[in-house]
Amino acid sequence: MTVALLTDKYELTMLSAALRDGTAQRQATFELFARRLPDGRRFGIVAGTGRLLEALPHFRFDDTALAAVADFCDAATLDFLRDFSFRGDIDGYAEGDLYFPHSPVLTVRGTFAECVLLETLALSIFNHDSAIASAAARMVSAAAKRTLIEMGSRRTHEQAAVAAARAAYIAGFTGTSNLEASRRFGVPALGTSAHAFTMLYTGADGPDEPAAFRAQVAALGVGTTLLVDTYDVTTGIANAVAAAGTELGAVRIDSGDLGVLARQARRQLDDLGATGTRIVVSGDLDEYAIAALRAEPVDIYGVGTSLVTGSGAPTANMVYKLVEVDGRPVRKRSSQKESQGGAKQAVRLSKPTGTITEEVVFPVGQRPAGPDAGRLLTIPLVREGRAVVDVDLASARALVATGLTSIPWEGLKLSHGEPAIPTRTVAP
Amino acid sequence: MTVALLTDKYELTMLSAALRDGTAQRQATFELFARRLPDGRRFGIVAGTGRLLEALPHFRFDDTALAAVADFCDAATLDFLRDFSFRGDIDGYAEGDLYFPHSPVLTVRGTFAECVLLETLALSIFNHDSAIASAAARMVSAAAKRTLIEMGSRRTHEQAAVAAARAAYIAGFTGTSNLEASRRFGVPALGTSAHAFTMLYTGADGPDEPAAFRAQVAALGVGTTLLVDTYDVTTGIANAVAAAGTELGAVRIDSGDLGVLARQARRQLDDLGATGTRIVVSGDLDEYAIAALRAEPVDIYGVGTSLVTGSGAPTANMVYKLVEVDGRPVRKRSSQKESQGGAKQAVRLSKPTGTITEEVVFPVGQRPAGPDAGRLLTIPLVREGRAVVDVDLASARALVATGLTSIPWEGLKLSHGEPAIPTRTVAP
């Protein structure tokens, strides 16, 4: 299915104007980057690269798409679109890498015509996915190795939910509630039951939680997770162990003071002999609540709303700017929106311990010399329109994990602050 | 294409457990509602109804979907899913209507099996679309009849962008930058050019803004909108009128102090004789910035990030709760999450002037009598699985417009406060 209409009208009107006088064929370089991190954030996680590479071959104007733009595109533009596929080159940061203000996350080279058409789709993918992955990575850091499950599908657009599950997995979440993310991206799908299931077992005599738990165990086995807070947590836990025995997989608590309830639940489970039964907590958790529960006997966090809404920063606010035309650097001079022209690459410097110290952005081909040459962050992603890297969530996950250990200690604080490392831009 | 996997795994595990013992066939009523409005908001706008009705016939488990769930669903569950289509009834608020805390926005009746499967998809659609429409309506109110254009596609997931454009249009925006929203929903598509187009006209002698403007006017006519802030706004306006003449449609300013620049631009345009040329402003506008520009000579607002992210409230936080099983009211008793059981309807009371005064939620069939019977908000949407209302954006737009004029004056204030009218829940 085409993705070509997931774009803004003005890209096509610009194309139309540029085709008339031949400027559409000028060689252009566009750069996708964030001028700043979301308010107070100390690092960002690049996500969306794989989804963009998967979308690229579908950025074609089929008959439906052509018909949709025929009322404002002239014949020459329609002819161009009919034959269009992106044949340029793309470099960029690997998916899962850290990014900071002015990191050249993506560099798109080709004719103006082909590069300008990708603007909206590329930004939509990176702005959404990076926002989610960046929030998710803070939660992963706050969880200090405990398991995180993404369960926010219901709080965001139904397709954004799928991408959010993917981004959370890249950031280090263990799985998702979302079935389509499991099918499409192989993210492990998790989940057992909601309050509605327990309430379904209501008869003339009122609620019958034991019957609900027995039914769930009969269907899903004793290793399942029973939701124990529909009526009363203490009774719920007693009912849960009565139904499943001491081999019960886990109990989930979705409301109340989760720290207090987790302690009580642990004690009650242990007293009942269910010492291996794990405790899942959920309900309006964000990175701060997760961190606040560190001292409590919580085994698994279920995170919903705050994950899919980027925990206060629902978009990464990346922009896609023309930086070079026919080899000449160009830049805008509008107030407060200055950026350096010319195509760029970046390296990240670190101490021998692995702790990162500086992001250095330099004009292409002018990598700074020195005893610490740093790690080159810019890698080839697309050549002549074809992806030259594999879309591999495992690699992206590994890169996030490495990245989080490379951030200076202060940079992992959840409080608002400056970026964890400075970005230095080398002038041409 | 199926939408059946845009759901959470636990709905299928619940289904599986409930099919084993026959409880899946119990008659159930689920209610979709918001326990509260987003922080400080005074009203919400229902959006998503039309999208849910359109999605409903596609909620089928085809071979791909069945294969995706085969590893955790037993044979009986797979058989059920293979034949599944929703055959129940849905009542709810009309799309575009106002809602308040505990308004029964949607009521879904059928077997537990068929109702529980819709949970995630219904919530995703309503939580996203209502969040956007609610934020958009505040902007529409703040704009005081001036034109608003939605241009935030690049700041949100590429499919969420399409739904956001639709929701903004329902709320009263005039159009969108998004081409797919235009094709799929008939939202007027708008837009002319970006800074990149102006910068494309850079030669050995440097930038050539006049050439860019001439090219755009040649392609799009003098009625086009020229973006004048790439280099210098005053020079840009002079170049714009030189290229298009005094019949120039509009100039757009995308950066800087928009109020000051709009005043200067108006004066300059008038001095040049371009008295009919309109002024479009954009760049990080939200409802507060829009309101602050009321006294300035701004004709059109372009709104991006704040629109598609719900202006601080990216999700409507609606929930989908089982309220009735086999005719018996049921409810959860967890801490802080109490809600009244039983299927409900609602009326909205108003003064003779049309100003609304109270939302009254009552058990189905127990509409309160009285001199002011109010307007019944709950209408039939689906009967035996088939939509019984037309999906009609024009009606939804009209309903929002009427709704905004019906809100008491204090309820339209942009500052944080209580809901514009109280909700009264009538006990059974």
From TrEMBL, chains A, B:
It catalyses: 5-phospho-alpha-D-ribose 1-diphosphate + nicotinate + ATP + H2O = nicotinate beta-D-ribonucleotide + ADP + phosphate + diphosphate. GO terms for molecular function: nicotinamide phosphoribosyltransferase activity; nicotinate phosphoribosyltransferase activity. Its EC number is 6.3.4.21. Residues 330-349 are annotated as: Disordered. Pathway: Cofactor biosynthesis; NAD(+) biosynthesis; nicotinate D-ribonucleotide from nicotinate: step 1/1. Transiently phosphorylated on a His residue during the reaction cycle. Phosphorylation strongly increases the affinity for substrates and increases the rate of nicotinate D-ribonucleotide production. Dephosphorylation regenerates the low-affinity form of the enzyme, leading to product release. Catalyzes the first step in the biosynthesis of NAD from nicotinic acid, the ATP-dependent synthesis of beta-nicotinate D-ribonucleotide from nicotinate and 5-phospho-D-ribose 1-phosphate. Keywords: Glycosyltransferase, Ligase, Phosphoprotein, Pyridine nucleotide biosynthesis, Transferase. It comes from the Bacteria. Belongs to the NAPRTase family. It comes from Mycolicibacterium confluentis. GO terms for biological process: NAD+ biosynthetic process via the salvage pathway. Residues 148-342 form the Nicotinate/nicotinamide phosphoribosyltransferase domain. The keyword Magnesium does not apply. This is Nicotinate phosphoribosyltransferase. One of its GO terms (cellular component) is cytosol. The keyword Iron-sulfur does not apply.
